[in-house]
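// run 5 | inverse folding | seed 20
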């Protein structure tokens, strides 16, 4: 299982990233910035406060600050996500605004017209047959080496999200390897799959599948499967905070050398997700989940990840990656905590 986990998760991530686009899209979209600059080309997407736009004479898409966009025109249809959780599949038009409260963004140009403020628009995605252009995520790598004792450490953290309508699917891999060239080695591998469906503007439901292996905690594998209900507490164009709670079933197996039989447990789960970013500057993402045991009184597990990234150029970012797994009452004599911090170089898409 320990060898199959990285292979399985890597293959799944590769499949998510290897789908090609087969549908065509218009290239006569128009964007006008507040400084008067005008571009004609193709709207790629809007997300994280950045409008991605590509003209025919550009080798790559440019990222424009959404708050600096004055007008935007397109004859295509898009999936339009608002801050309050509403979702539309329709055409739109953005007109010049006169003040910050002006409802200058029009959804539906012929019937069922709705007008909102430009900054109420959280995400715009093209309506296409495949999901390549609707993927967003990151790949971060870290490496360190000390010549004095031949000690090394490598980290890999990847995540990708696909959205369609009111559904979202997120796959993530978090791996760390450390040791000495002629000494002991330690590894940690985690694969997480998260599904969410928006029920109401601020409420969502979903499912969780998580597989963890940790040499530090003598854990051969821990498989968790469950469901949860969540609520968006704060949702702005630059910051999102949500809380969730539910129940999961967990299957645990420790190293055979320890002699601990494989066990099945039931756990509650409560946690939060936080994402905040500043245009072309910083990106912070954190997730924390607590698992109070329903079958072992007094046992609480914690899983947390956090990434702080700073933009270097284009889609290249430098930052810090932190992970922690804590078990207050492991069923064997083992380390309760597995904590790691590393610097990374990453690519966001």
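// decoded
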């Amino acid at each position: 299982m320990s060898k199959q986990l990285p292979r399985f998760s890597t293959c799944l991530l590769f499949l998510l990233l290897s789908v090609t686009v087969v549908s065509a899209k218009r290239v006569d979209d128009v964007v006008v910035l507040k400084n008067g600059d005008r571009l004609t080309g193709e709207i790629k997407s809007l997300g994280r406060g950045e409008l991605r736009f590509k003209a025919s004479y550009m080798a790559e898409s440019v990222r424009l600050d959404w708050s600096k966009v004055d007008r935007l025109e397109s004859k295509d249809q898009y999936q339009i996500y608002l801050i309050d959780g509403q979702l539309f599949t329709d055409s739109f038009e953005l007109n010049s605004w006169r003040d910050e409260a002006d409802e200058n963004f029009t959804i539906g140009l012929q019937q069922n017209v709705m007008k909102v403020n430009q900054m109420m628009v959280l995400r715009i995605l093209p309506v296409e047959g495949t999901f390549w252009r609707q993927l967003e995520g990151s790949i971060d790598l870290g490496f360190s080496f000390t010549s004095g004792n031949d000690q090394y450490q490598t980290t890999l953290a990847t995540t990708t999200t696909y959205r369609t309508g009111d559904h979202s699917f997120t796959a993530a891999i978090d791996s760390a390897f450390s040791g000495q060239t002629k000494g002991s080695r330690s590894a940690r591998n985690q694969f997480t799959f998260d599904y969410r469906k928006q029920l109401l503007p601020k409420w969502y439901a979903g499912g969780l599948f998580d597989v963890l292996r940790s040499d530090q905690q003598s854990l051969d594998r821990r498989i968790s499967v469950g469901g949860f209900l969540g609520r968006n507490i704060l949702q702005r164009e630059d910051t999102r905070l949500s809380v969730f709670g539910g129940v999961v079933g967990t299957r645990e197996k420790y190293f055979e050398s320890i002699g601990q039989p494989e066990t099945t447990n039931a756990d509650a789960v409560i946690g939060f997700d936080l994402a905040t970013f500043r245009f072309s500057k910083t990106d912070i993402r954190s997730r924390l989940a607590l698992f109070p045991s329903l079958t072992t009184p007094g046992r609480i597990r914690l899983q947390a990840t956090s990434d702080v990234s700073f933009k270097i150029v284009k889609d290249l970012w430098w930052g810090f990656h932190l992970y922690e797994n804590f078990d207050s009452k492991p069923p064997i004599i083992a380390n309760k905590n597995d904590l790691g911090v590393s610097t990374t170089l990453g690519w966001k898409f």
